[in-house]
């Protein structure tokens, strides 16, 4: 990837956490999955690789890759690949077109923030085993701020933007340059991490923090997401899934901020470069709320197939030099 270097000149990274990621895919030994997917986040300015979080955007390419590499046979005009996400142990199913037994990448699906169109990859997340509310409460006070901590594939802390004295409509660059806001976000994230059972998250990228503001373009809510202090130029798939589920919880901090649709499971999450639609069905009638179904439409395109040559390890400096 070219780390540690803020421009990642000597590598394939794009000098931002969103473009400094890797997926490791292999045939699965689990009878309920076809392939295993391990997501690795590569720090840009530090020599650090972590698997403590998952990534739904990279997940969109796992199914097509599995067919391309012969890990899963094409299943006719459409192929479904069962994926075990090793970072969380949770399952996902990716469906995408494979006419003639070959992966089709061209299509009409359009994703906000992604140039052009491509074939749709429908990703469905069956009900997982992790609790939707890691703290056991729909609303917690963390570092003096009321939040809702949710985990629907990505540990996420929902915070009404107004409680941090921002609008939630700022461009991604503005909150990154706000040192006072950065300090508050760090304080909330560290405290929330402990409360959510994640331990010391000082060097981790989870939980993510998502600021909520009323929608401006017909969606359910406007978001600004931080991983951990860099402001996402859009929103991750699993982060959006957690936001959508959190908005459906009676008593959560999304009440009075979000405008949920009267019918259907679809929730439109607005973000800095457009929107992302998430289908989420949450059961709130039991002892603890649980997600019955989550699905999202994404796209993936094959860009490169070849060999990457890593830089050789630097020799140990001679003594006294």
UniProtKB/TrEMBL annotation:
Membrane spanning stretches: none
Top-rank taxon: Bacteria
Keywords: Isomerase
Family matches, as InterPro entries: PrpF-like (IPR007400)
Family affiliation: Belongs to the PrpF family.
Protein name: 4-oxalomesaconate tautomerase
């Amino acid at each position: 990837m070219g780390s540690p270097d803020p421009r990642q000149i000597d590598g394939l990274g794009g000098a931002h956490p969103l473009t400094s990621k890797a997926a490791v895919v292999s045939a699965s030994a689990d009878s309920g999955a076809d392939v295993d997917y391990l997501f690795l986040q590569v720090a840009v300015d530090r020599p650090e690789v972590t698997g403590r979080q998952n990534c739904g955007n990279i997940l969109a390419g796992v199914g097509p890759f599995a067919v391309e590499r012969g890990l899963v046979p094409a299943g006719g005009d459409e192929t479904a690949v069962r994926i075990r996400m090793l970072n969380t142990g949770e399952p996902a199913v990716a469906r995408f077109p494979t006419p003639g037994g070959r992966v089709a990448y061209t299509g009409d699906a359009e994703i906000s923030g992604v140039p052009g169109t491509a074939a749709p990859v429908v990703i469905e997340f069956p009900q997982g085993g992790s609790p939707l509310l890691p703290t056991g409460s729909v609303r917690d006070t963390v570092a003096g701020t009321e939040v809702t901590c949710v985990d629907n594939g990505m540990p996420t802390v929902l915070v009404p933007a107004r409680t941090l004295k921002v609008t939630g409509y700022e461009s991604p660059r503005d909150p990154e340059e706000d040192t006072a806001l950065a300090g508050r976000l760090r304080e909330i994230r560290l405290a929330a991490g402990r409360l959510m059972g994640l331990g010391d998250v000082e060097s981790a990228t989870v939980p993510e923090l998502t600021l909520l503001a009323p929608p401006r373009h017909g969606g359910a809510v406007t978001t600004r997401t931080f991983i951990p202090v860099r402001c996402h130029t859009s929103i991750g798939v699993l982060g959006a899934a957690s936001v959508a589920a959190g908005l459906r919880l009676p008593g959560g901090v999304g009440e009075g901020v979000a405008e949920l649709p009267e019918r259907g499971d679809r929730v439109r999450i607005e973000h800095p470069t457009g929107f992302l639609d998430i289908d989420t069905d949450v059961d709130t009638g039991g002892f603890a709320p649980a997600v019955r179904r989550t699905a999202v439409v994404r796209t993936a395109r094959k860009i490169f197939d070849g060999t990457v040559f890593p830089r050789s390890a630097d020799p140990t400096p001679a003594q006294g030099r």
